[in-house]
Specification:
about 350 residues, 9 helices, Aspartate Aminotransferase, domain 2, about 35% helix, binds pyridoxal-5'-phosphate, 3-stranded antiparallel β-sheet, Aspartate Aminotransferase, domain 1, alpha/beta, 7-stranded mixed β-sheet
């Protein structure tokens, strides 16, 4: 029996093949009698797990050799502090584009450590959109410019990357990393919490260009010091071992599905199916984001009659379509189509929407 589909924004579902693999491999006993849960983080067995995850990720993203890949404990919210603490150096300013909920959270946190300049924001009403790609306000004395290419809660995605010149571009790619190819060399630093597309909660991947590690960071706690973690291969202290093992399995699974090109093609089919159904519903369902700026990963939509939102959520749940409510800041509906969501799940959702419309339309 199909256990249903999980459209949650995070933690997300995992591919069934990854859950099966985890069930056998994580509980298997090595020669010393230990399972993956019991291996010392400095030991050979976990060392191999870590090296495998790093090599696979480097391969999938074609990460250039002058970048470090770190697997750090904690979520993306920790990086909201670690990024300014590690990269500010002698500068006093940092620039942030305000594109919605998660960038605003990052801005608030950065404001505790530095003067934040808002590089850009979208000033219009509905339909919603990403900030315009120019002009951007980047002060001379600016350590980096931060963007959130996919706004998970707002359902907004940038149509292209901004040109920040010599200012290093830093991106919170928590909800979009490994959903499509990405040119790492355009960024100074990328970070993504694992629980959306890379496995389970508790770990964040940081990919940082070598030259950015040289800046002094006197206030950084040692466990949060990118330089120390880079120098010690993410083992300056105990890393989230099981989350790293799961990420390695996710990377293997993605590689087997034609890598990032395969993920992107599948995501585009899923997103087109759902947005087309919304747009073809004669206004019964509607998407508040402008077509060129709609996130393929987090599809935000709503019912023209808001009083039907709860009945729709109940109707969908009865059919095994779970967690379709919008972010608490916005209400409405949202379907997250992360890598693990099979195309059949989106077909089931579109059928459910049509049936609901026939009943209530
Ligand atoms: C989910 C999410 C976060 C928050 O991640 P935590 O691991 O809960 O701190 C931050 N940024 C984006 C873009 C997200 O989607």
């Amino acid at each position: 029996m199909n256990a249903g589909y999980n459209f949650a924004s995070g933690p997300s579902g995992l591919p069934a093949a990854v859950v099966e693999r985890a069930r056998t491999e994580l509980f298997a006993r090595a020669d010393d009698g230990s399972t993956a849960f019991e291996q010392p983080f400095t030991g050979e067995a976990f060392g191999a797990t870590l090296a495998h995850a790093r090599a696979r990720l480097k391969d999938l993203l074609a990460v250039p050799d002058n970048y470090h890949i770190l697997f750090l404990a904690g979520g993306a919210t920790q990086q909201f502090s670690m990024v300014p603490l590690n990269l500010l150096g002698d500068a006093s300013h940092v620039a942030y584009a305000d594109s919605g909920h998660w960038s605003q959270r990052a801005i608030r946190e950065a404001g505790r450590y530095a003067a934040v300049t808002i590089a850009a924001r979208y000033e219009g009403e509905r339909p919603l959109a990403a900030p315009p790609l120019s002009p951007w306000c980047l002060p001379d004395d600016c350590a980096y410019c931060h963007i959130t290419p996919n706004e998970t809660a707002d359902g907004i995605a940038y149509p292209a990357l901004p040109d920040c010149g010599a200012v290093p571009l830093v991106a919170d790619v928590t909800s979009c990393l490994l959903t499509a190819p990405l040119e790492v060399a355009r960024f100074g630093l990328l970070y993504a919490a694992a629980q959306k597309n890379l496995g389970i909660a508790g770990m964040t991947v940081v990919i940082v260009r070598d030259d950015l590690l040289r800046r002094p960071a006197p206030l950084v706690p040692s466990s949060c010091d990118y330089r120390a973690q880079a120098a010690q291969g993410s083992r300056a202290n105990t890393p989230p071992t099981i989350a790293i093992a799961l990420a390695g399995m996710m990377f293997d699974w993605i590689a087997q599905q034609d890598g990032l090109a395969g993920m992107q093609a599948r995501l585009q089919r899923k997103a087109a199916l759902l947005y087309d159904a919304i747009d073809a519903s004669g206004g019964f369902f509607r998407a508040p984001v402008a077509p060129g700026h709609r996130s393929p990963v987090n599809v935000r939509f709503e019912l023209a009659r808001p009083e039907l939102t709860t009945p729709f959520l109940d109707y969908a749940a009865q059919r095994g379509l779970h967690h379709l409510h919008g972010h608490s800041a916005f209400g409405g509906l949202r379907a997250s189509l992360y890598n693990a969501m099979p195309e059949e799940g989106v077909h089931a959702l579109v059928t459910c929407m049509a049936d609901f419309m026939r009943r209530y339309g």
